[in-house]
UniProtKB/TrEMBL annotation:
GO terms for cellular component: transcription factor TFIIH core complex; transcription factor TFIIH holo complex. It holds the Pfam family C1_4. Keywords: DNA damage, DNA repair, Metal-binding, Nucleus, Transcription, Transcription regulation, Zinc, Zinc-finger. NCBIfam families: ssl1 (TIGR00622). The lineage of its organism: Eukaryota, Fungi, Dikarya, Basidiomycota, Agaricomycotina. This is General transcription and DNA repair factor IIH. A zinc finger (C4-type) spans 338-355. Residues 1-55 are annotated as: Disordered. It comes from Hermanssonia centrifuga. GO terms for biological process: DNA-templated transcription; nucleotide-excision repair; regulation of transcription by RNA polymerase II. It is found in: Nucleus. Residues 38-54 have a biased composition (Basic and acidic residues).
């Protein structure tokens, strides 16, 4: 029904039908063309969908669909497949070459923590800030366990400034105490890489040449508020042989990549919570010592070894009379006596506050050597045909192995043994997968041959 005209210029607003101002022939042709266009668009969309199914996105190539490879066993259980995936993940990092590399066992590390407002994002649960604090505490504990002769300091980045949170210390309890109170580290403002790196560099300027100087940055922002040219700071860090490593929580930035590449550090962008922890814990082993170019241009030469003076203290029992310690000025019974000046300190390893002697215990020194002489990687046993009288139980924990008569279904991959056996190349003893990981990560000494 055509609309009712009120006058020549206005029409009734009650009508909701379209107004035709074209002729019947033009209108019919427009409708046909419109329908044809819909059909063409629909066919294009169908082709695009089918093409997308055949050719996935580029970012999907980095993810493995583990649920497609999991298969049930004869009893219909998935426990065996899950254990196999866990074993492959454990063995992947044990397959690295175990050659003796010249490393610096006395390390000095400054931990730069991003405390800007970007750390309150919830793309990592519960927030980037809370996850960073949790992993930082675990990192510090594990770092001191594997590097007992090292020291760690903590610096924060917020409000466009660098804030000193914890002084450099060789006592893990002091470092953990500095980041234990969450309300004092509440994120705000913008970070400043240049100010924080300059503060870390100035705190390591007095360190001796035989120790390593490292900066680890946990960065979650996409901006940096710097007062000057950060490239000048980068050149000074490279000249002072300071190694900068960075773990980004948001995305890769060009300046962050340059900081790591030009100083010989490691750079990585965390994809998720588990990947963030892996990138962080990969920085726990001491880095390889870099060679120095010769003056005549004849290649690379190793730097000359410097002798270090250390002291092994005398430990005081609990029953000893209380006395003042030089580190906290508190009355305590337990402690350690410096062999040079007879001052009393609370914990070792540390530097004596009176004479400056490095005080260490023999277990700490022995524990630092396993990075220089690592345990050789165990060889996965793929067949028992060439083995006379194979052992029925693990040499480490005495638990029985899998069925030794027939291998497990499916080919072994990623260096895993179908029998669950891993053999030491020196003593030829067989170990289970758990003992293999325990020996290389905790004991650092083969229980069969003692090497």
């Amino acid at each position: 029904m055509p609309p009712r005209r009120i006058n020549d210029s206005y029409m009734d607003v009650d009508s909701d039908s379209d107004i035709s101002i074209l002729g019947d022939e033009e209108q019919s042709s427009r409708v046909k063309a419109k329908g044809k266009g819909k059909a063409v668009d629909k066919s294009k969309r169908d082709k695009a969908k089918s093409k997308a199914k055949e050719q996935p996105y580029a970012w999907e190539a980095s993810y493995t669909r583990s649920w497609d490879t999991v298969q049930e066993d004869e009893a219909g259980s998935l426990q065996g497949a899950v254990e196999d995936l866990i074993a492959r993940g454990r063995r992947k990092r044990l397959l690295a070459p175990a050659n003796a590399i010249r490393r610096t066992i006395i390390r000095h590390l400054i931990l730069l923590m991003d405390l800007s407002s970007a750390m309150m994002d919830r793309d990592m649960r519960p927030t980037r800030f809370d996850l960073m604090l949790q992993y930082a505490r675990e990192f510090i504990t594990e770092w001191f366990d594997q590097n007992p002769l090292g020291q760690i300091g903590v610096v924060g980045m917020r409000g466009g400034l660098g804030e000193r949170i914890g002084e450099m210390s060789g006592n893990p309890q002091d470092v953990l105490k500095s980041i234990s109170e969450r309300h004092k580290l509440e994120p705000n403002g913008e970070p400043s890489l240049q100010n924080a790196i300059e503060m870390a560099r100035s705190s390591m300027s007095h360190l001796p040449t035989h120790s390593s100087r490292e900066i680890l940055v946990l960065f979650g922002s996409l901006t940096t508020c710097d007062p000057g040219n950060i490239h000048d700071t980068l050149e000074e860090c490279a000249r002072d042989k300071i190694r900068i490593s960075l773990v980004a929580l948001a995305a890769e930035m060009k300046i962050c990549r340059e900081l790591c590449d030009k100083t010989g550090g490691q750079f990585g962008v965390a994809l998720n919570e588990g990947h963030f922890k892996d990138l962080l814990f990969d920085l726990i082993p001491p880095p390889a010592q870099r060679g120095v170019a010769r003056a005549g241009g004849g290649g690379i030469s190793n730097p000359a070894a410097d002798l270090m003076m250390m002291g092994f203290p005398t430990r005081l029992p609990v029953t000893s009379p209380p006395s003042l310690c030089v580190c906290h000025s508190e009355m305590k019974s337990e402690g350690f006596i410096c062999p040079r000046c007879s001052a009393k300190v609370c914990d070792v390893p540390t530097d004596c506050d009176i004479c400056g002697l490095m005080i260490v215990s023999s277990p700490h020194l022995a524990r630092s050597y396993h990075h220089l002489f690592p345990v050789k990687a165990y060889v996965a046993v793929m067949s028992l045909d060439d083995t006379l009288n194979p052992s029925l139980s693990c040499h480490g924990c005495a638990l029985p192995f899998k069925d030794a008569t027939a291998p497990a279904s499916g080919p072994a991959a990623d260096g895993t043994s179908p029998f669950g056996r891993y053999r030491c190349p020196e003593c030829k003893n067989d170990f289970c997968a758990d003992c293999d990981v325990f020996v290389h990560d905790v004991v650092h000494c083969c229980p069969g041959c003692g090497k």
